[in-house]
Each structure stands twice: as C-alpha cells, then as structure tokens.
C-alpha cells in the first residue's frame, strides 16, 4: 500500500526511528499521550451500534424519497470528510445528472464560509425545490454554520411550516450540550451524535460523515467495513505497518528540511480528499512552531502551473502520490483519418494508460529534481477502499503528531481568529478584545 522506495531515505534511518514510532503507537494504545481524551475514533467503527447505522440509513432513505436537494451545513471536520468521500465516489457531475441516474438528491454544502454571495446563490437555487438540511456542528456554536442554518431554517419554515420543516432538519451534534442540541430537543429534529471523544477531523466514520454519504447513495456498510479491516491491518507492531512507515518517513524528511508535503493525485474526483487530508494533517501537526505544511496538486492540470516550482524551486518539499490502481472507467483514444494533431500514435490507447505514463514521467522528472516521492496505492475507488484509506491517514497522522512532539487532537490556534472576529463584531463578552484591536 505504501511505497517509500523513492524517498531518498536509507534503511538505517528507518531503523533508527523504529523505537520512537513504537513509543508513539504505545502512547496511542495506552491512551497516555497528549489529547488522549480524543482517541474514540481509534475503534469507533467497531463500537458503532447497528441501530445507529440503521437510523442513519432510515434518515438517508427518507431524504432520498422527499428531497430534491440536501443541504449539508458545517465547516472544517464537520463537512470536509463527507464532501471528500461523496466527490471521490460519485459521478464527476453528480448534481447535473438526472435524478434517475443519481437515485439521490442533489447535494450542496453551506456554512463553510461567510460569503453572502455564495449563500444567496445557494438559497436561490433551493427556493423552489424540495429540500432537507443536515446541520453538523460538534460544539453547536460555530459561527459560520450557525449563520447558514438561520437562513435555511427560515426558508424551510416559510416553505413547509413548523411541523413539516422539523421533519426535514437533521442535526448532528454533541450528545449532551450545545445550542444545536438544545434546539434539536425543543423542535423535535432527528438528531445524531458526535461522540465526545472524537474530534471533528477524525469524525468521517461517525454520523458526521455517514448521513451525507448514505444520502448520496453510497454503501456505508462497505465504507465502515474498510475502516474495520484497517483497524486490524494497521495495528501491526512492526515497521511493515504502512501507518508506521508513512509517519516515520514524514518525520525523517521533515527533520532534513522537507517542510512542505504535496499530496498529488491524477484524478479530479480526489480533489476534496486532498482538502480533507490538508485539514487532518495541518490542524493536527501545525502547532508549537512545528509541522509540515500540507499542500496539494491535481496533475496533470497543475503540471502546467505548479509543476515548474516543484521541479526547480527551493528544495524544501516532498510529494506523496495518491495512486488508484484500477479505475472503472476508461476511454480509448479515437483515430483520425488526417492526423492533423499528430495524435494517431496514441489511437486505441486508453486514457488511463496515458495518465499512468504522465505519472511515471513526472515521477522520474521530480526525482531528477531531487524531490523525495512517496506513494500510497489504493486498489480502486470504492466505499471499502476509501473507508480504509481514511483510517490509514488518521492513524498515520496521530503517530506522526506524537513523533513530532505535539498534541495531534487539539487546535488552539483556530481560536485566535475567532476571538478577534468576535471582538470586532462586539459579541457580548469580547468587547475588550474588540477595543484593543480597533486601537491597533
Ligand atoms: O477538526 C476540528 O475539530 C475542526 O475543524 C472542527 O471540525 C471545526 O472547527 C467545526 O467545529 P464544529 O463541528 O464544532 O462546528
């Protein structure tokens, strides 16, 4: 699954780091490291009860039956995982194909920004459609989704009245506390629980990810099975464990000055997998003035832009290719009688073959440019493989964070902008901060 033969790392460097990686894994398993209150994701797929899965499936079925559009409202870990999985596993033009082809509602995301232009446009296209909402927030108090939810709740109340609106609002939030929890109780919304011990970016296998993914018609049993198998496979206590390898190699490269990791994919459908991955690693590791900066590119598109700086810019980066071994769809390149474009040498060849040669050619070029290259191989794009891959990244990230000496489960830096924003907005309780900022 994980290949680091092009990382420019010698065997003895791996041998040297093995004791540290074993220690990091022990910190995870014995729940002895920083952030150990947030390790619920480690075995969550095994603990998830069948009746909760059935509740998710029932809700998804109801949404499919009565809604043309599903709006997912959330930000960060409360939206990126489901967006990533849905984008990777559905039609590239999911919202544009017919309902018969899709067999599921169109899906749009809101509350992941504060742009009135985006929200107004989304409200415009939702107005005359049958809609349901899944609002997701662990804290239940995050400003961006709270604003979007106000607008969509208002729209639903106007369209359907109180009783029907409350049947079309699904809430995913904390089990006991928070504004959303209270609202769900008061209004009788169907609600799902984000466990206390699972942080936002580690929550894709919980109802945070499961409800939107199931509503999109994706098989959540296979998705969860992938994660359950990953729990067993990535629990090996030696360096053949791919999570150990990825965490170890990243740490070695970081200590040699490779401060930027670029996740590379050749499939546009993986764009949001990269976005989710960037959040997972960036928010988990970037603290205490440490951390690899996670970036991403989509090739061959970005070979015509960022390819230049990767090939010849400052040598402080490395690449991790997310490679899909078997793709379901292929197109054979047509022949042309006159061959004016000179492409007949490729006639009859599959586009996947051409894409693979682009990948190999780029790999050789970037190795010549002294860019360490890692590769993660997925057998296919299926719910099972994606469910497994997500767990792989989560575990590797936790290990990598402990190797780096940080708490991979908190995000204290995220609070800084919130405090300033609240101060500037004169939120009660933040007036002093606001005044100090206005003086600045
Ligand atoms: O990973 C995280 O914990 C964060 O990205 C959160 O998911 C994000 O800030 C949204 O928080 P909440 O779900 O409380 O609205």
Automatic annotation (TrEMBL):
Residues of the signal peptide: none
Pathway in which the depicted protein is active: Carbohydrate biosynthesis; gluconeogenesis; Carbohydrate degradation; glycolysis; D-glyceraldehyde 3-phosphate and glycerone phosphate from D-glucose: step 2/4
Known EC number: 5.3.1.9
CDD domains xref list: SIS_PGI_1, SIS_PGI_2
InterPro entries registered for this protein in UniProt: G6P_Isomerase, Phosphoglucose_isomerase_CS, SIS_dom_sf, SIS_PGI_1, SIS_PGI_2
Lineage top rank: taxon: Bacteria
Major subcellular location class: cytoplasm
Keywords, alphabetical: Cytoplasm, Gluconeogenesis, Glycolysis, Isomerase
Family the entry assigns: Belongs to the GPI family.
Job of this protein: Catalyzes the reversible isomerization of glucose-6-phosphate to fructose-6-phosphate.
Protein name as annotated: Glucose-6-phosphate isomerase
